[in-house]
Specification:
Helix content is 31%, strand content 24%. It contains 2 helices and 2 strands; from the N terminus they run ββαα. It has helices spanning 35-42, 45-54, and strands at residues 7-14, 26-31. The radius of gyration is 12 Å and the shape is globular. The protein starts with 6 loop residues before the first strand and ends with a helix. The relative contact order is 0.26.
Amino acid sequence: MAKAGPRVRAVGPPLPGPQGRAWHGDRTVFEFASVEAARACYGSADYHEAMRQRSPTP
């Protein structure tokens, strides 16, 4: 995420995870310089590796 340059805007307590999966992290809101920068981050190999590590496999 650091490579994409977002700013952390808010962090909150743990919530139920996306797609109904349990998630044991905190809520974090990131601000990107542009929609394009956010999309590039979401599509990056680094982000998908981080997602894979935090998401349990079924």
